[in-house]
Write a structure and sequence with these properties.
Chain lengths: 382, 382
């Protein structure tokens, strides 16, 4: 086995764990916290709740709210300026992947200077970041656990992957109570995002025994609980999805992802699409493309999805992929690109695929993919 | 599910990972490293190797070698004095549980002052510790991963459990190449120690989904690989034991242990016995004591040990415990206390059990145990 690294934040998990946010900030030496969130979280009341918790501990804060879905380079740059001007010392984000990735981008620029595009790729961040506490409000992005940060470069219309160990926050707070205010659509998209993380990480060329067990656990939990979570919003099922998202993130943060995420970054940057929208369309197609490179491992996934075997490893793997596609189809999601980007979008697939092969995620895909092969995959699911 | 916390160090795992020690020290800001090790590691050449790696990076070091098996309070106090006198700034330990726990004790006293007994129990350490890199040379103690530190109080003749999140080192380096210089006895004792960690953590009252999967993985890997590792010393099997020890430690560090470890601390402190010697005698007896409180979970363990089921959960659990005892018996270890401490030691069992009920590990045992019950267990395996 090659040398492998495994890094995760300290995790505080459970119903009501949001209440620990103030103590966490104090432990990290906070005098003035830089808060990052978005309109949805504000409206759901969670931001105010967090502000109250900080105030109770006597901690000052300043709030940056310029976050959108699929955060952009200029937002991160504005945020860093505000962080420095206000003399903040600890960053706390509460939200889904967008506020958390914005917070990470702000942390990079506040301590390392320059423009966010300077840090695209792996291990480009040299100086230590300000302490961070990330509070996830979805069970999906995994940004609260991971060393990944995805920011859209508006000039090139691409989601940049910034990957470095220092992006692992000091503390991740995962409170399943927060999921109760989420819409059905967001629960589905987030869970499918986590499922894609777990799957691609399991098949990655740098997967390790430490990441593999988390991948399989996540796949199992999402497959078992998503239907029930959507139908009942029961706290038990939402909690299981949260455990799955944390596990999936421990896996992909340390094992990397694959060609499906490379494509999702380029597609998402161009069309402003969420990962959770792209994965049901692309994931099984990319799995089929990768099958011959990872038959035994895809059979492991198949056995979980099928709850049993179906002939040889290859047959089990293929049946698993089919069943996974049926699983996606059982939710209200698109399974074809044309339904998301329309006929006028089709012309952009070629430049998008040419961009995707340079995404850091493509490096850990089990089968080397050139842009023509990626385009073929996209055409298959047109 | 209650609120649960999960904290582990950054882990660098794999053949040759020792070579990263210098870079790790630099990343933590080292100018003068405080090295902790013991005679066995010196003789095997690993200490010199580490010194060479540090020198190559231009890092000064000072070496503290006053470590014995089952480290003692006065050793830790001497070490802290030496750390402060020499103006060291990062602690690196290379060795088994003894040097690593000594290093942790030194870290506590160097930054928090006082005597080491002041910190016995859970969460008594207030101030941050110096940065630590722990390099394990056994696949067992898990001190490289855990928030535990076990130091013998010489006056009371007891192994004190010191448990606090800040004892999780910054970086753990796990290099299976180092295991090749270990004796057969040490490989067996270490693996059985890890197996006991995994088992007690799985049954603990504060086990969580994050710790449970690591427990089961560790039990499976040790059961599958220990025989082969002892017989062949193949690098593959030693590597599997290393993965198991890391997994077991992720579990117990966050889930705690149980009555078996509480007893092992009191017994080990009194008779200067290693954990690996005590567990084959006590573990299955304590499991039988706990059975009614954790039937389903013991059946999970049984299914791994039996590689299948045997009737009801209770029957599977019991058959698993029997099989585990056979597994221990298949190695050259004592299965009765009288073989280790002799008839003259028997009189001390009562005061030892009275001490054990106050050990922090007893608090997470699934069935509340009083000293009379612990004594009964010890008598059963006399």
């Amino acid at each position: 086995m090659d040398i492998t690294k495994f890094a995760i934040p300290e995790i505080i998990f459970g119903r009501g764990s949001l209440n620990y946010a103030g103590q966490c900030a104090l432990r990290l030496g906070a005098k003035k916290v830089f808060l990052v969130s978005d309109a949805g979280i504000e409206q759901a009341g969670w931001l105010q709740r967090l502000m109250d918790i900080l105030e109770k501990e006597g901690i000052e804060w300043v709030y940056y709210h310029g976050v959108t879905s699929n955060p952009r380079d200029f937002q991160v740059e504005q945020g860093a300026e505000m962080y420095l001007k206000n003399g903040a010392d600890v960053i706390i984000a509460i939200g889904g992947g967008s506020p958390m990735d914005t917070a990470k981008g702000i942390a990079i620029l506040a301590s390392n200077g320059g423009r966010i595009r300077d840090y695209e790729g792996a291990n480009k961040v040299q100086r230590p970041l300000p302490p961070m506490v990330l509070i996830t409000t979805t069970a999906g992005s995994g940004s609260d656990i991971s060393q990944f940060c995805i920011i859209t470069d508006m000039a090139r219309k691409v989601k940049m992957s910034i990957i470095t160990r220092t992006l692992v926050p000091n503390i991740a707070i995962v409170d399943p109570l927060i999921l109760r205010t989420k819409s059905e659509t967001l629960i589905i998209q987030s869970a499918i995002d986590a499922l894609a993380h777990a799957t691609e990480a399991y098949l990655s060329v740098i997967a390790s025994p430490f990441t593999e067990m988390h991948s399989l656990k996540a796949i199992e939990l999402i497959h078992k609980n998503l239907k029930r979570a959507v139908e009942t919003k029961s706290l038990d099922s939402l909690e299981q999805l949260s455990i799955a998202a944390v596990s999936a993130s421990m896996a992909f943060s340390n094992a990397g992802l694959g060609a499906e995420h490379a494509l999702a970054h380029s597609l998402g940057g161009h069309f402003d699409l969420r990962h959770g929208v792209i994965h049901p369309i692309l994931l099984t197609a990319v799995m089929r493309f990768n099958l011959d490179s990872r038959v035994a491992k895809m059979a492991d996934i198949g056995r979980i999805i099928l709850n049993g075997t179906k002939g040889s490893d290859r047959e089990t793997a293929l049946a698993g992929i089919d069943k996974l596609q049926e699983f996606f189809a059982s939710f209200d999601v698109s399974l074809r690109f044309r339904d998301e980007i329309g006929e006028e979008g089709r012309q952009y697939l070629e430049p998008i695929c040419k961009m995707a092969i340079n995404d850091a995620c493509n490096l850990t895909n089990p089968r080397l993919a050139n842009w023509e092969e990626l385009l073929k995959i996209c055409e298959e699911v047109w």
